[in-house]
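Query structure, 218 tokens:
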């Protein structure tokens, strides 16, 4: 997997260390995570609050492990995410951000946050609408105990690489616009097992890879 990312980065003529691998471990057992950790992987992504909690407890001795919560988050489940995760990728409402901010324990570093943007415009997709990203980003950036790092997207489920590339590019353009408005964002969380090359070509800084690392989810 690291070789595949390296090839994508080289092909895109980007610096060697410009893309971070987030290993999406949802539905796979803690033993699989411990195995990858032993190989040097440190960033792991989970989608479900309960699963995050039980795996974090099981793997508490892996002191350098960073949990990323990448699933949709309901407001009544923010507390354990605020207490466990280093990153949250799919914030799309101010209310969720405010809860995470107020529930982030004082003794932990600021929670690292990305806003999920609905780049495909599909009604079924979560994420803030592109036209509303700027207002949400400005509001989130002022909250204590969290640091707004960038944007995340899940593009349309399609094999059409032109369409996909366009949606990734849209996320990058939005990030550039926010930075032109004075924010300092450095993270584009985009690209999964099937489309990481396209995402890297369009500027992804973190790719979220499940299937290609752990195998098919049942
Ligand atoms: C499951 C999931 C992934 C990983 O997808 P794969 O296609 O298995 O690589 C990435 N991002 C999110 C938000 C996910 O839910």
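Result returned for the query:
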């Amino acid at each position: 997997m690291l070789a595949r990312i390296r090839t994508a980065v080289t092909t895109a003529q980007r610096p060697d260390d410009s893309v971070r691998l987030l290993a999406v471990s949802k539905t796979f057992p803690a033993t699989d995570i411990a195995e990858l950790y032993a190989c040097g992987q440190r960033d792991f992504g989970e989608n479900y609050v309960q699963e995050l909690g039980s795996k974090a407890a099981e793997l508490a001795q892996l002191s350098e492990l960073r949990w990323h919560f990448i699933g949709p988050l309901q407001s009544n489940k923010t507390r354990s995410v605020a207490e466990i995760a280093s990153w949250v990728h799919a914030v799309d409402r101010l209310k969720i951000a405010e809860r995470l901010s107020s529930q982030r324990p004082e003794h932990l570093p600021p929670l690292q946050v990305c806003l999920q943007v609905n780049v495909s415009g599909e009604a079924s997709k979560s994420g803030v609408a592109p036209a509303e990203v700027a207002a949400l980003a400005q509001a989130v950036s002022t909250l204590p105990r969290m640091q707004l790092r960038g944007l995340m997207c899940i593009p349309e489920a399609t094999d059409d690489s032109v369409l996909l590339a366009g949606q990734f590019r849209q996320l990058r353009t939005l990030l550039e616009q926010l930075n032109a408005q004075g924010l300092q964002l450095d993270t584009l969380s985009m690209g999964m097992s099937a489309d990481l090359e396209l995402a890297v070509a369009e500027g992804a800084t973190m790719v979220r890879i499940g299937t290609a690392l752990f195998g098919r989810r049942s």
